[in-house]
Amino acid sequence: MLKPALQLRLGQQLTMTPQLQQAIKLLQLPVLELQAQVQLALESNVMLEVEDEESQELTPLEQEQAVDQAPDADEGTREEEVSVEMVDPWDDTSIPAGEKRTNDDDDRPLEFADEAERDLHQHLIWQLETSPLDPRQVWIGEAIIDALNDDGYLTESLADILASLTTDLPVTMDEVEQILAYVQTFDPAGIGARSVSECLCLQLSQLEAETPGRDLALRLAQDHLQDVADRDVATLRRALEVDEEALQEAMALIQG
Q: Is residue 132 scored above 80 in pLDDT?
């Protein structure tokens, strides 16, 4: 619930590369115009040269046959368009046609998940270091963040955290509690909670004070969470002395 996650979405789209567009354009040219295009390219680019062993002049009969076969080239072009390479949304560049993807692509969702878990700690440390705290308070905050589990819950007691800090410098329990309360205002909402009830209270506290049902939802999360889980509306109405509409509104906030 607290752990930031990356939602990955794969997509495919057809792309027509400039090289393919040029090839299609050349295939549709008559032989004489094709020769003119080749000659123009040779004159404009000194790095190009003609290989004599492959060059030969066509007879007028061969030129006519080449013109007659031009529609067949168009059909081949249309067939080739169907097999145009797909664009990989994970990569900044297209994979050329005919090349296979590596097996590394199959592992990418796992790599992103691992990065998300590591980034939670880094994200919290970044918020701590950019906060208006003095170095001593930042030092206490780092000890608190190090005591969080992968889901963002504080699994160590404040007494244990205090004991680990006092081995280096004298620290009071009030200081640890104050910095914990400050860390609990960080993103994501609910971070640093010691229970599900406290986590919900932290999340609800970050809503606007005018949010309908907020105050009642806080009471539910703090004192009546089990009844909310059991959806025991009758018991909740008697305990809180509220009507069913207000109760449902508050319960919807908690469930959301």
A: yes
The two structure tokens encoding residue 183: 């860390």
For residue range 73-121, what is the model confidence (pLDDT) as tens digits? Answer: 455 444 444 444 444 444 444 444 444 444 444 454 444 444 555 688 9
Look up residue 149 and give its two tokens. 């589990």
Domain limits of the chain? 18-83, 196-255
Q: Which CB contacts under 8 angstroms, 24+ apart, belong to 95-104?
A: none
Q: What is the pLDDT of residues 200-237, one digit of tens each?
A: 999 998 888 888 888 999 998 988 888 888 888 888 88
Two structure tokens written together for 43: 């004159």
Are 6 and 113 in contact by the 8 Å Cβ rule? The answer is yes
Which tokens go with 2? 């607290």
- Burial of 253 (C-beta count, 10 Å sphere; 0-12/13-18/19+): buried
Using CA atoms, how far apart are residues 218 and 204, in angstroms rounded to an integer?
7
Amino acid at 189: A
If one counts every other C-beta atom within 10 angstroms of the C-beta of residue 26, the result is 13
CA dist., res. 77 & res. 49, Å (int): 27
Confidence of residue 128 (pLDDT cuts 50, 70, 90): very high
Give the phi and the psi of residue 77 in degrees, each rounded to 5: -65, -40
Omega before 60 cis (within 30°)? no
Helix (H, G, I), strand (E, B) or coil at 120: helix
